[in-house]
Amino acid sequence: MKSLRKVLVMSLLGLSFAAFAQKGTTLPLWPNGPAVASVDDNDKAELTVYLPDAKKATGRAVVCCPGGGYQHLAMDHEGHQWAPFFNMQGIALIVVKYRMPHGNRLVPISDAEEAIKTVRRHAAEWRINPDDVGIMGFSAGGHLASTIATHAKDEAAPNFQILFYPVITMDLGFTHKGSHDNFLGAMPKDKKGQKEYKQLEFDYSNDLQVNRTTPRAFLALSDDDKAVPAANGFNYYQQLYKHDVPASIHIYPTGGHGWGYRETFAYHYQMVFELKGWLQSF
Questions:
Q1: How many other C-beta atoms can be found within 10 angstroms of the C-beta atom of residue 185?
Q2: Dihedrals φ, ψ of 222, to 5°?
Q3: For the chain, which terminus, N or C, has the lower number of CB atoms within 10 Å?
Q4: Would you say 164 and 68 are in contact if contact means Cβ atoms under 8 Å apart?
Q5: What is the mean pLDDT of each run of 10 residues along the chain (282 residues)?
Q6: Backbone angles phi, psi at 252, to 5 degrees
Q7: What is the enclosing helix (H) or strand (E) of 102?
Q8: Which of 101, 119, 118, 117 minimizes the C-alpha distance to 109?
């Protein structure tokens, strides 16, 4: 019965079992060395590119930032497993293995910005419309995605954003402390350093950085998320609404944190239908 239900849902979504056999192409993000060095020389940034069949290609692309508390990356259920869903809708998926910050926020930020720039540089080759490139993120990857959505300029700025149970704020009352500490590093001991640190907490509380040029958004959260309170995503949605940015928010009753594309998430099929509908709305 469960298998029959899966086949039916996949059929309605326009997916096929054959799609799951598709292989992506992995390439280094910084072939000539990164713009911002990491303290970990063994941590290399990469892109895995999943392109739809040329006959299906719509020109849209999604740059995906998996989560992991800025400490590790959940590359499968918050990355690669999404490829069939997007490809069968004619959308390219580019999964980013971004580097960990170790207290230097500019390391993952530079990786995510370069990922979007790389997609646009390859637009003709990959059959992508450079004006239809979005960013997607999960948990801490959602913080990175929303950082790019609210801070990036020109060719690094995305056209839309998709956020799943994102870390949004750096306010210690609501944030995920591990993500906060890994992203910003330790609080300095001197007063000047502490003042600058507080400014960074404000600057990277992305709900406070929304303006009328922020790209449209889709947000999906769980009400019972104990790791990253749903208030992160909800407060971000409120600011998007306040600034007349088109946004759609979905708060599911249960699910906790970190479900990604896992079918064990009770609202998995509802979520993918709602995301597909949103993607078709613009």
A1: 15
A2: -115, 135
A3: N
A4: no
A5: 55 50 87 96 97 97 98 98 98 98 97 98 98 98 98 98 98 91 92 92 97 98 96 97 98 98 97 98 97
A6: -90, 145
A7: none
A8: 101
